[in-house]
Amino acid sequence: MSTNIHDKVAKLSLDCFKILPKSGKPISTEWTVLSCIVQDIDGELTVVALGTGSKCIGASKMSEKGDILNDSHAEVMCRRSFLRYIYDQMSLESKIIKFNKDVSKFLLDPRVKFHFFTTMVPCGDAAIFPMYDSSELGDIVEDNEDDLNPNKRKKIDIFRTGAKCLESSDKIDPKLPGSDFHVTGVVRTKPGRGDRTLSVSCSDKLAKWLHLGVQGALLSILLDSPIYLSSFTYPSNTPFNKEALERAFYDRFGLVHFKDPYKQNKIIFGKSSVHFDFFKDDSKQPCPSSISWYLGKGKRLEVAVEGKRQGVTKKKLNNKAGRLKICKLELFKTFMDICETRKIQLKPDCDNLLLQIYFW
Fold first, then answer.
1. Higher pLDDT residue, 133 or 182?
2. 93 catalytically annotated
3. Catalytic hit among 64, 75, 136, 306
4. Nearest to 31 by CA among 306, 304, 284
5. Residue 295 near residue 34, CB atoms below 8 Å
6. 337-350 residue pLDDT tens
7. At what angle do helices 74-91 and 202-212 cross, to 10 degrees?
8. pLDDT digit string (tens) for 11-53?
9. What are the tens digits of pLDDT across the range 153-204?
10. Taking the model in full, what pTM does it have?
11. pLDDT tens digit string along 232-288?
C-alpha cells in the first residue's frame, strides 16, 4: 500500500475533525486523541466515523444498566460511532450493505474497505517500545539492515504506558530503570488516577477487533462475515514502532488460524505527512470531553463527559436524555429494532438475548 493512501486517509480525517462544531473540542491549552474510520470504495474515500477522547471512568461509576460509557478513549468512541454507522446502513437502502432474505443476513459489498486513523499509539502494549535518537521518533522500523543493526541505532530508553497489568496477571511491571521498566505482551487496564478502571487497554481492544472484526457480538449475528480494517495510519508527529504494533496486535497471541471467509491478512501500518495540532504535550492538560460522530441520519454528533451526554441537567442525567447513542443500552435497542424490522428470528442459542435486556 502506497504512502499516498496514508496521506489521503489522514488529511480526510483531520478535515472532518476541523469542520465539526467547537463543542467538545480541546482549547489551545488542552490535548486530545482523534481516531477515524475511513470507508474506501474503489478508491473513493469517505470518513464514516470519528471519535476523540482520553478519559475512562473508574469501576465505582460503572452501570449495570448499560447506560454509561465506561471507556471514552478516542479509539473506542470511533469504533462505537462506526457501529451506529453500520446500523444506519442496515436500516436504509444502502449501497454498501444489502439484506439477503434467504439467509436473514446482511452482506457487505466485497469492494468496501475500511481504513483506521489515529493520532496516538494505543495505550497498553503497543505503546511500549524503545526510544532512539530523537530524529528517528515516529519512524517505522523498516526491515532493512541499517534499522535493525544495534550499532547503527542508539537506544536511549523506552516509551512508557500508564496502562496497568491485570491484577490477576502472573506478570507485573518490574519498574526498573530504562528498558526494564515494563514487561511486554500482557493484557493491561486503562490508565487512571484514584478509582481504578476495569476497561482493558486500547492495544488489547484493537487486537481483538483486528482478529475478530470491529463489528462486535451483536452485529456478528446480523452480518454474513466480520468487518476488518485494512490499514492503520498515524500523523507525522506521532512516535510509533512497527515491531511494537506487530507484537501487540498479532505476535503475542501466537499463530491464529481463520477459516474462510474469515481469513484476514495483517493490517498495513503507515505514517502520513500531516500534523495533528492537539497532540499530547507536557505543557497541556487533557481535554475533559469526548466526541462521537458518524455519517448517517438524525443526530450524528454527541459530546460526552464522564460517560454521559454533555450539557444535560443533573435531573435528567440518569434518564434517556443523559444517554449517548453509542452506549450499550442504545446500541442494543437499535439491534432489536433491526431484528424486528427485518423479521430476523434469532437462533435458539440467542433467545436469551430477549430475556437479558438492559433495564429500560
1. 182
2. no
3. 75
4. 284
5. no
6. 999 999 998 866 65
7. 30
8. 999 999 999 999 999 999 999 999 999 999 999 999 999 999 9
9. 556 789 999 999 998 888 999 999 888 899 999 999 998 777 888 999 999 9
10. 0.89
11. 999 999 998 999 999 999 999 887 776 655 667 789 999 999 999 999 988 999 999
Please report, as a single letter, which amino acid is at residue 57: I
